[in-house]
UniProtKB/TrEMBL annotation:
Signal sequence region: 1-27
Top-level taxon: Bacteria
Organism: Sanguibacter suaedae
Keywords: Signal
Listed name of the protein: Phosphatase
Length: 228
C-alpha cells in the first residue's frame, strides 16, 4: 500500500512539475489528464463546479498525498504529548530545588512546520501545553534545532508569535557541519553545563532524542522521516 501510495505521489509530483510522464505526454482533446486521474483515485471525482479545486494538483495537494491527514497527525501528536504532560506534572516542580528544563525540537514539534507552513507557523497545541506546564512549574524551556543561525530572527519571531515561553534557542552555527544528532546532543550538554537538569526532551525525529542528556524522551511522529 505504501509503495502504491509512493507511486501515486511520484506521478502526482511529475504532473505537478509538468514533467513528461510515460503514456501521458500526449493528451487527446477531452482526455483525462494524469493529475485528474491521480486526484480522482485519491480524493474522488473533481467537481467542475467547485472553484476551490480547479486545475492541476497544487503543492499542497502533493504534500497531502505524501502525508497522513492533518487530523491524523494531530491525533498522533496528542497521544504522545498527553503522556509527556502526565510525566511533567509528576516530575515538576523539582522537589530538591534543582534548576530544571525541558528541551523542544522546533520543526514539526513546537511548530506545525509541514502541516501549517508559513512565516508564522502556529504552535502545535499539545507541545505548547508542555511548555506552559514546564514554565508554570518553574522549569525553563529551551529550543534545540538544526535550523541555521541565519534563521534566528524569523525563528524567534515565530516562536514568540506562537505563544511559547523561551529561555534559550540553540541553532546550527555558521560552518558547523556536524550531524543533527551530534549537534543537538552537544547543545543539550551545553544546557546541562549551565546547571540544568533536562527532565524531558521532545522531538519528532530519532536524531532529536538519542545521545542522552535527558531523563525522558518523547517522540512525535515523523512518518518514516517525511517530517523534518
Ligand atoms: Mg523536527
Amino acid at each position: 500500500m505504501r509503495s502504491l501510495r509512493r507511486g501515486v505521489v511520484v506521478v502526482a509530483v511529475a504532473a505537478f512539475l509538468g514533467t513528461a510522464v510515460p503514456g501521458a505526454s500526449v493528451a487527446a482533446p477531452g482526455a483525462v489528464t494524469v493529475a485528474e486521474q491521480v486526484r480522482t483515485e485519491v480524493a474522488g471525482p473533481v467537481d467542475p463546479a467547485d472553484p476551490t479545486r480547479p486545475g492541476p494538483l497544487t503543492a499542497q495537494d502533493v504534500q497531502a498525498l505524501a502525508l497522513p491527514s492533518y487530523q491524523q497527525w494531530v491525533a498522533d501528536v496528542t497521544a504522545v504529548t498527553d503522556q509527556a504532560a502526565a510525566f511533567l506534572r509528576t516530575r515538576l516542580p523539582d522537589a530538591s530545588g534543582a534548576r530544571t528544563a525541558i528541551v523542544l525540537d522546533i520543526d514539526n514539534t513546537a511548530l506545525q512546520t509541514s502541516y501549517r507552513p508559513g512565516l508564522t507557523s502556529p504552535a502545535t497545541p499539545g507541545v505548547l501545553e508542555l511548555a506552559r506546564i514546564a514554565e508554570d512549574a518553574g522549569a525553563d524551556v529551551f529550543f534545540v534545532t538544526a535550523r541555521p543561525e541565519i534563521l534566528r530572527g524569523q525563528t524567534v519571531y515565530n516562536l514568540d508569535r506562537a505563544g511559547y515561553p523561551r529561555d534559550g534557542l540553540y541553532m546550527r552555527g555558521w560552518f558547523d557541519f556536524r550531524s543533527d544528532e551530534a549537534l543537538k546532543t552537544a547543545n543539550r550538554r551545553a544546557i546541562e553545563a549551565r546547571g540544568y537538569t533536562i527532565v524531558a526532551n521532545i522531538g519528532n525525529n530519532v536524531h532529536d532524542l538519542v545521545g542522552g542528556s535527558a531523563e525522558r524522551t518523547f517522540k512525535l511522529p515523523d512518518y518514516d522521516g517525511q517530517l523534518s
